[in-house]
Structure formats: C-alpha cells, structure tokens
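name: query_chain
kind: protein
chains: 1
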Amino acid sequence: MREEWFKFFEMLVPYVDDEEQAEIETTFLPDQFQEDDFINITKLVANENRDQ
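structure:
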C-alpha cells in the first residue's frame, strides 16, 4: 500500500529541471520564514496505521 501511495504522489508532482529548481530555491529562501510559521506534522504523517 505504501508503494502505491508513493507512486500516486510521484505522479502528482511535476518534473522540475535543475535550472527551474535553482530559481525556486532562490525565490523561496528558508531564511525568509520564521520557525513559528510552520506546523510540524511529522507524527501525523509517520503514523500510517492511524484510523481515517
């Protein structure tokens, strides 16, 4: 099941070449954002056996 999810998400993510990736990284520098601007969902994502 996990492999199927990875294939599904891979299909949804568009291909980005190196030049476009470099442009994205310069536009959205991590230094521009504060830590408290984000929510840590690691535990939610990591718990694949949770009830839906």
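note: The first helix runs from residue 2 to 12.
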